[in-house]
Amino acid sequence: MKSKMQMIESILKGKNIKLTKQRKAIMEIFLNYDEHFKPEEVYDLVRNQGIGLATVYRTIEILKIHDIIEEITIGKDRYYELKLFSEKALHIHFTCKKCNRIYDYDKTEMVLDLIRLRNFVEKEYHVDVEDMKIMMKGICEKCRR
Known about the structure:
The protein has helices spanning 4-14, 21-32, 39-46, 53-65, 108-125, 141-144, and strands spanning 69-74, 77-82, 92-96, 102-105, 134-138. The protein is of the alpha+beta class. The protein folds into two domains: 1-84, Arc Repressor Mutant, subunit A (Orthogonal Bundle), CATH 1.10.10.10; 87-145, Dna Ligase, domain 1, CATH 3.30.1490.
């Protein structure tokens, strides 16, 4: 069975894009951490490998275009998370206005409600919903203390 990195390499090869050593190091960040990253945070994790910020930005754009990672925009900030192998295909993002941390919520009951909402919109408006993004803002439990 292919590893996740091998699957990504196959996807990119199919698009005539090489998975260079630098791109592989950047991709490892998304594969190894279940977090939301700003490009600068990815850079901080790979710069000791001689990878520049411009390479991080270019690689993120390639991975985004090919649906390997997903962009989440909060105000002027852009965050990225792994999309391709996500076990939580439908989830809600919550961002704390104080600490700016992003939380994912994906309880089964809530996901079922999201599926019902998607089905209703498709039936009522005669559309095919391909993606749903719901972002909530507020104060997280840690910051409320």
